[in-house]
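To the wet lab folks,

You asked to see what we're planning to order before we commit. Fair enough. Below is the target structure as C-alpha coordinates, and below that is the sequence we designed to fit it. If anything looks off to you, flag it before the synthesis order goes out.
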Protein backbone atom coordinates (compact mmCIF):
# COMPACT_ATOMS: atom_id res chain seq x y z
CA UNK A 1 0.00 0.00 0.00
CA UNK A 2 1.32 3.44 -0.90
CA UNK A 3 1.76 5.76 2.03
CA UNK A 4 -0.02 9.08 1.74
CA UNK A 5 2.23 12.09 2.06
CA UNK A 6 2.02 15.82 1.61
CA UNK A 7 -0.51 18.47 2.46
CA UNK A 8 -3.57 16.54 1.30
CA UNK A 9 -2.58 13.56 3.45
CA UNK A 10 -1.98 15.83 6.45
CA UNK A 11 -5.40 17.45 6.10
CA UNK A 12 -7.14 14.07 5.77
CA UNK A 13 -5.17 12.62 8.70
CA UNK A 14 -6.08 15.52 11.00
CA UNK A 15 -9.73 15.25 9.97
CA UNK A 16 -9.65 11.51 10.71
CA UNK A 17 -8.11 12.22 14.13
CA UNK A 18 -10.83 14.76 14.93
CA UNK A 19 -13.55 12.32 13.89
CA UNK A 20 -11.99 9.61 16.07
CA UNK A 21 -11.86 11.94 19.08
CA UNK A 22 -15.48 12.98 18.52
CA UNK A 23 -16.61 9.36 18.21
CA UNK A 24 -15.13 8.45 21.60
CA UNK A 25 -18.01 10.42 23.16
CA UNK A 26 -20.50 7.99 21.59
CA UNK A 27 -18.93 4.74 22.79
CA UNK A 28 -21.32 2.32 24.47
CA UNK A 29 -24.21 4.78 24.19
CA UNK A 30 -27.77 3.66 23.56
CA UNK A 31 -30.38 5.62 21.62
CA UNK A 32 -32.06 6.97 24.75
CA UNK A 33 -28.77 8.28 26.13
CA UNK A 34 -27.91 9.80 22.75
CA UNK A 35 -31.18 11.79 22.88
CA UNK A 36 -30.71 12.90 26.50
CA UNK A 37 -29.95 16.51 27.34
CA UNK A 38 -27.40 16.49 30.14
CA UNK A 39 -26.72 20.23 30.30
CA UNK A 40 -28.87 23.35 29.98
CA UNK A 41 -28.09 23.31 26.26
CA UNK A 42 -30.49 21.73 23.76
CA UNK A 43 -27.55 19.78 22.36
CA UNK A 44 -27.45 16.00 22.67
CA UNK A 45 -24.83 13.50 21.57
CA UNK A 46 -27.13 12.07 18.91
CA UNK A 47 -27.91 15.54 17.61
CA UNK A 48 -24.24 16.45 17.46
CA UNK A 49 -23.46 13.22 15.60
CA UNK A 50 -26.16 14.03 13.07
CA UNK A 51 -24.84 17.59 12.77
CA UNK A 52 -21.14 16.78 12.24
CA UNK A 53 -22.02 14.18 9.61
CA UNK A 54 -24.39 16.53 7.79
CA UNK A 55 -21.92 19.42 8.02
CA UNK A 56 -19.10 17.38 6.52
CA UNK A 57 -21.34 16.16 3.73
CA UNK A 58 -22.62 19.71 3.06
CA UNK A 59 -19.13 21.18 2.74
CA UNK A 60 -17.86 18.39 0.48
CA UNK A 61 -20.96 18.87 -1.69
CA UNK A 62 -20.19 22.62 -1.73
CA UNK A 63 -16.74 21.90 -3.17
CA UNK A 64 -18.14 19.29 -5.56
CA UNK A 65 -20.94 21.42 -7.02
CA UNK A 66 -19.29 24.86 -7.14
CA UNK A 67 -22.76 26.49 -7.16
CA UNK A 68 -22.33 30.25 -7.29
CA UNK A 69 -26.07 30.75 -6.63
CA UNK A 70 -26.30 28.64 -3.44
CA UNK A 71 -27.99 30.06 -0.35
CA UNK A 72 -27.66 28.79 3.21
CA UNK A 73 -30.85 27.04 4.40
CA UNK A 74 -31.15 28.08 8.04
CA UNK A 75 -34.20 25.90 8.75
CA UNK A 76 -32.57 22.65 7.65
CA UNK A 77 -29.35 23.70 9.39
CA UNK A 78 -31.17 24.00 12.71
CA UNK A 79 -32.95 20.64 12.22
CA UNK A 80 -29.67 18.78 11.88
CA UNK A 81 -28.82 19.45 15.54
CA UNK A 82 -31.53 17.05 16.68
CA UNK A 83 -31.67 13.28 16.64
CA UNK A 84 -34.97 12.40 14.94
CA UNK A 85 -37.34 9.79 16.33
CA UNK A 86 -36.42 7.37 13.54
CA UNK A 87 -32.65 7.89 14.02
CA UNK A 88 -30.53 5.36 15.87
CA UNK A 89 -26.98 5.71 17.10
CA UNK A 90 -25.99 2.74 14.93
CA UNK A 91 -27.61 4.27 11.85
CA UNK A 92 -26.07 7.68 12.44
CA UNK A 93 -22.64 6.10 12.98
CA UNK A 94 -22.98 4.15 9.72
CA UNK A 95 -23.93 7.34 7.90
CA UNK A 96 -20.97 9.25 9.38
CA UNK A 97 -18.59 6.45 8.40
CA UNK A 98 -19.95 6.47 4.83
CA UNK A 99 -19.57 10.26 4.63
CA UNK A 100 -16.00 10.01 5.94
CA UNK A 101 -15.13 7.46 3.24
CA UNK A 102 -16.76 9.67 0.61
CA UNK A 103 -14.72 12.64 1.84
CA UNK A 104 -11.48 10.64 1.71
CA UNK A 105 -12.20 9.50 -1.86
CA UNK A 106 -13.27 12.94 -3.03
CA UNK A 107 -10.31 14.78 -1.51
CA UNK A 108 -7.85 12.17 -2.81
CA UNK A 109 -9.17 12.84 -6.32
CA UNK A 110 -9.37 16.61 -6.00
CA UNK A 111 -6.91 18.09 -8.50
CA UNK A 112 -6.08 21.29 -6.64
CA UNK A 113 -6.57 22.39 -3.04
CA UNK A 114 -6.40 25.97 -4.32
CA UNK A 115 -9.65 25.41 -6.24
CA UNK A 116 -11.88 28.42 -5.54
CA UNK A 117 -15.22 27.42 -4.01
CA UNK A 118 -18.24 29.74 -3.90
CA UNK A 119 -19.84 29.68 -0.46
CA UNK A 120 -23.59 29.80 0.00
CA UNK A 121 -24.78 33.25 0.96
CA UNK A 122 -26.35 33.57 4.42
CA UNK A 123 -27.99 36.29 6.53
CA UNK A 124 -24.61 36.88 8.25
CA UNK A 125 -22.72 36.74 4.92
CA UNK A 126 -25.01 38.26 2.25
CA UNK A 127 -22.14 38.83 -0.20
CA UNK A 128 -20.80 35.73 -1.95
CA UNK A 129 -17.43 34.65 -0.59
CA UNK A 130 -14.93 32.34 -2.23
CA UNK A 131 -12.69 30.00 -0.26
CA UNK A 132 -10.04 27.59 -1.46
CA UNK A 133 -10.94 23.91 -1.20
CA UNK A 134 -8.16 23.77 1.41
CA UNK A 135 -9.90 26.37 3.58
CA UNK A 136 -13.20 24.49 3.29
CA UNK A 137 -11.46 21.31 4.47
CA UNK A 138 -9.84 23.18 7.35
CA UNK A 139 -13.30 24.50 8.22
CA UNK A 140 -14.63 20.92 8.39
CA UNK A 141 -11.79 20.08 10.79
CA UNK A 142 -12.59 23.14 12.92
CA UNK A 143 -16.29 22.27 13.02
CA UNK A 144 -15.58 18.68 14.03
CA UNK A 145 -13.14 19.75 16.77
CA UNK A 146 -15.52 22.45 18.01
CA UNK A 147 -18.38 20.00 18.41
CA UNK A 148 -16.09 17.34 19.85
CA UNK A 149 -15.60 19.65 22.82
CA UNK A 150 -19.35 20.07 23.18
CA UNK A 151 -19.81 16.31 22.96
CA UNK A 152 -17.19 15.67 25.64
CA UNK A 153 -18.95 18.01 28.09
CA UNK A 154 -22.35 16.46 27.31
CA UNK A 155 -21.03 12.92 27.77
CA UNK A 156 -19.24 13.77 31.00
CA UNK A 157 -22.42 15.40 32.32
CA UNK A 158 -24.45 12.38 31.19
CA UNK A 159 -22.50 9.58 32.86
CA UNK A 160 -19.02 10.78 33.79
CA UNK A 161 -17.29 9.36 30.71
CA UNK A 162 -14.38 11.50 29.56
CA UNK A 163 -12.57 11.51 26.21
CA UNK A 164 -9.12 12.19 27.66
CA UNK A 165 -9.43 9.38 30.19
CA UNK A 166 -10.77 7.04 27.49
CA UNK A 167 -7.81 7.85 25.24
CA UNK A 168 -5.51 7.10 28.19
CA UNK A 169 -7.31 3.81 28.84
CA UNK A 170 -6.98 2.95 25.14
CA UNK A 171 -3.23 3.47 25.54
CA UNK A 172 -3.11 1.10 28.52
CA UNK A 173 -3.14 3.66 31.32
CA UNK A 174 -5.03 2.92 34.52
CA UNK A 175 -6.71 5.49 36.71
CA UNK A 176 -7.51 5.42 40.44
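Sequence we intend to order:
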Amino acid sequence: MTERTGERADVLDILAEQRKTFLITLRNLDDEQARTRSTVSELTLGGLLRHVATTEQHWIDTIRTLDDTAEFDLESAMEQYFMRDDDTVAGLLERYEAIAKETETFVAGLEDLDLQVPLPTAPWAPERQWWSARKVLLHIIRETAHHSGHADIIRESLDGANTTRQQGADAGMTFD
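Structural context that might help your review: DSSP finds seven helices and two strands in the chain. The first helix runs from residue 6 to 24.

Thanks,
Computational group
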